[in-house]
Amino acid sequence: MSVVVGVVVFPGSNCEHDAAEALEAAGATPRLVWHTETSLRGVDAVILPGGFAHGDYLRPGALARFSPIMNAVGSFAASGGPVVGICNGFQVLTEARLLPGALQKNSGLTFVCRDAEIQIESDRCVLSGGIAVGTRLRIPINHFEGNYICDEHTLAELESEGRIVARYVVNPNGSVASIAGIANASGNVVGLMPHPERAVNPLTGSTDGLTMLRALVRSCAARVG
Amino acid sequence: MIFEVLVEVRLRRGIADPQGATIEKALGMLGFADVSNVRAGKSYRFGVQAAGAEEARLAAEDLCRRLLTNPVIEESVITVETPAPHPDRSAGDPTVAGAGLDSRS
Question: What is the ipTM of this complex?
Answer without folding.
Answer: 0.78
